[in-house]
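Backbone shape codes:
===
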Amino acid sequence: MNHAQRQPAVAAADWRKDFPILEQTINGQPLVYLDSAASAQQPRSVIDAVARYHREDHANVHRGVHTLSHRATDAYEGARDKIRAFINAANRSEIVFTSGTTESINLVAQSFCRPRIGPGDKILITHLEHHSNIVPWQLVCEQSGAELVVAPIDDHGQLELDALRSLMTGDVFLLAVGHVSNALGTVNPVKEIIADAKQRGIAVLVDGAQGVPHMAVDVQDLDCDFYAFSGHKMFGPTGTGVLYGRETLLEEMPPYQGGGDMILEVSFESTTYNELPYKFEAGTPNISGVIGLGAAVDYLQSTGMQRIADYESGLHDYMVAQLARVDDVRLVGSAANRAGVQSFLLGDIHSHDLGTILDHQGVAIRTGHHCAMPVMTRFGISGTARASLAFYNNRDDIDRLIAALGKARQVFK
């Protein structure tokens, strides 16, 4: 094996050491974690950053004159600056902290869309979407009388782009589209889709929950109006998320919630709202979580998003090839451009049963509909087993998965 072939394996071994949770055994077997699309594990640097805050700096942000409050505020706002640079937003005021992708999308639905749409208007989404990019639009359509329109996908799990374009009519107010499908791994050509929508005067929100952890994202280059993502998908703490919004749009939008820290002045007669981004950040935030998210960004930046993307692409190819060799396996989703996710079925074994048997062998996968029931309906199934990768995985993990599937076949014979 030459040096070029050895290098990815060496890098993966080094990365893996940074994730202490992977050092344990499950049911007497070394843990194989293949569920990063649901929640990625956290490197030691993230865990330490959160612990350090709680141990040394815990205080409320923005509101105190004492030293601990200053420290907490500096770390919290420092994370905002890191995220701005990470996705290349034009201004730190375009980075709104939320509890995750779900809240970010709901914020746009209720603050951007609801005051502006009514009967005769449309919200356009696609058949690939996670429930979090479906239900908020259903709610705002029910509230406003607008119509929800859905673009189809083909048998490979890819968007039918011509059909999507044909649905971009003059009465469409907003297009909401996922960057990467959590159920199938399909990577959508979002830059091309955004350009088509912009030509027609349609605002665009991108659900980037599965995009940001696996590839470099430049919101200015994409030219999207909103980009939503979650901390726990990108090796940070749960309960953290980001809404990137174009500053001119955020300025026009009313607050999503009322409370402390989103105001400048309050009387019983009227309230003056705070400046961006604080207008959308009511109440005491998840301070330690956001600090941990900043540490996760530091870790990703130091690792290199292109290195991550290249490594995961090769590992995904290996996983798909190995799964395809297993008797009775049906791969669900075969888009030409995919991220590190593969859904599959094994014979007539129910996905939950399969997941349980694999867990007995120390292999953690996801089973069920993956909060993407319309995708499952499109393929005529109730759910799948899903193996999802991160850069801390390696070929040994895939080989363990394949061996565990072989044992599952024996059990159900």
Notes: The mean pLDDT is 95. The chain is about 40% helix and 15% strand. The radius of gyration is 22 Å. The longest helix spans residues 67-87.
